């Protein structure tokens, strides 16, 4: 299933123009990416399903009479007269299977799935995806090692700024805090294009101070926003 598009053609144009404007005063190159999500989190969904399954089996072991009575009731009273070890194991396997499948199915509803993902995992996955995207699209692709990526991940509601060697060696990471604050504040308000433009403007000012434009200045990376 294709990822939803969050920005209109006009929004894309605004961000591209902001990148071109910011790069006009610096030798740095800015890449912008807006992602629907940074990971599928299948492992997290499986972990929740496994946890729910184990919890159900533990509950069965702790109070077998209660749950076996529920089983009998679900079968309308048409059950065995006496629960043999084999019958109990069959019931446990059925409960485990239903619980596992049920938890996996309810996590197909994306709001719930992403709500269940622990925040540290979201943060780590967004960072990893941003670094991978940077390595593919910007790292060492400029002569002066002056590429920088502004990455916004929608489902996780997180962002990253990743800089190439020359920028990382000259600019303290804390300097990007203001750009991140602008980016996330506008994104929380639902103004995603404005969020990207604000972040690009702030990054451009920092790059202008540390890496002023040189003549001639080749545009080595595309100015367009990449939406994935």
From TrEMBL:
Residues 132-204 form the TPM domain. It comes from the Bacteria. InterPro entries: TPM_dom. Pfam families: TPM_phosphatase (PF04536). Keywords: Membrane, Transmembrane, Transmembrane helix. The chain crosses the membrane at residues 44-63, 83-106. This is Putative membrane protein. It comes from Novosphingobium marinum.
